[in-house]
Design a protein that fits this description.
Phosphorylase Kinase, domain 1; Aminoglycoside phosphotransferase; 294 residues; 5-stranded antiparallel beta sheet; Aminoglycoside 3'-phosphotransferase, Chain: A, domain 2; globular
Length: 294
């Protein structure tokens, strides 16, 4: 369920107005996968972006994680600043700088945004090592993927392609190889990367975790494939990142399988509105797994 500004508890609206001045305009924006409010506010202090949801929502832990990251991000990180947060009235509320003159990046072949995206990933690895935030280890994220992946492989649907490649690749994943001391965004895709005149900004840190810097680069590869690159072209792009040179081959292949099988699962059994998009992502990931195991 998506909420409008007027549907937020008056206590929260009053607290934001007290912090930033009178609210001159509130425009509800299309939300992502989490059920909550996404609002652009014009205030006496300037334009803000507000996201909020009830604390009993299934997505509430993601907001709590983003809140922790927002309080810890160094100023050098190319991300909008979290200006205020609150957990009151049964709601979690986050207030950020509004990113003006922004659009989603294009990860496609030949896109002028690619250099900026790679620059951003490089900067994240350098700036966020050591990890400044209290977030779970990347193994927590990956183990969640693996539960769905293993369930699918235990009872594979008849239409599951590349099942042998998937099984082999999944067997290569040793989660100890993912450990490290870098704060990872762990969900870089077009919807979370904004192109602005000064470069690329990253938003939505709800899946942030701590792990090896190369994991960020690896998780970008299937997004590049989904945008039209071949697996070889996608890996050639991330080879420009220093962290990729430290990536253990077996762990990359295993992670590719976990990422893709999770989307194979959701594409079949997840909420109906997202099945098609997850099936497309699974197809991209599958080509990567086949490339690495072929």
């Amino acid at each position: 369920m998506m909420y409008r500004w007027e549907e937020l508890p008056a206590e929260i609206r009053d607290m934001i107005a007290a912090e930033f001045g009178p609210i001159r305009q509130a425009i509800s924006l299309p939300g992502g996968l989490t059920a909550g409010a996404a609002v652009r506010l014009a205030t006496a202090s300037g334009t803000l972006f507000v996201k909020a949801l009830p604390d009993d929502s299934r997505s509430a832990p993601l907001y709590q994680r983003e809140r922790l990251v927002g309080t810890a991000l160094p100023p050098a990180v190319p991300a909008p600043r979290m200006l205020w947060s609150g957990h009151t009235g049964g709601w979690i509320t986050l207030v950020f700088e509004h990113v003006d003159h922004a659009r989603e990046v294009d990860l496609g072949i030949g896109s002028p945004d690619l250099d900026g995206v790679l620059d951003l990933v490089r900067a994240l690895g350098e700036t966020l090592t050591p990890n400044p935030a209290e977030v779970p280890p990347v193994t927590d994220n990956v183990e969640f993927l693996c539960k769905r992946a293993d369930a699918l492989l235990a009872n594979p649907p008849t239409d599951l392609e590349a099942s042998d490649a998937y099984r082999h690749a999944r067997s290569l994943l040793n989660t100890d190889a993912l450990a490290g001391d870098t704060l990872l965004h762990a969900d870089l895709h077009e919807g979370n990367l904004l192109a602005v005149p000064a470069g690329v900004r990253v938003i939505d840190w709800g899946l942030a975790c701590q792990g090896a810097a190369w994991v960020e680069a690896a998780l970008l590869v299937p997004r590049l494939i989904l945008a039209g690159h071949t697996p070889a072209q996608a890996e050639e792009l991330v080879e420009q990142l220093p962290a990729w040179k430290e990536a253990p081959g077996a762990a990359v292949t295993g992670l590719a399988a976990a990422w893709s099988l999770f989307r194979e699962f959701v594409g079949r059994y997840g909420p109906e509105p997202i099945r098609a998009s997850r099936a497309r992502a699974a197809a991209a990931g599958r080509t990567w797994v086949e490339y690495r195991t072929g």
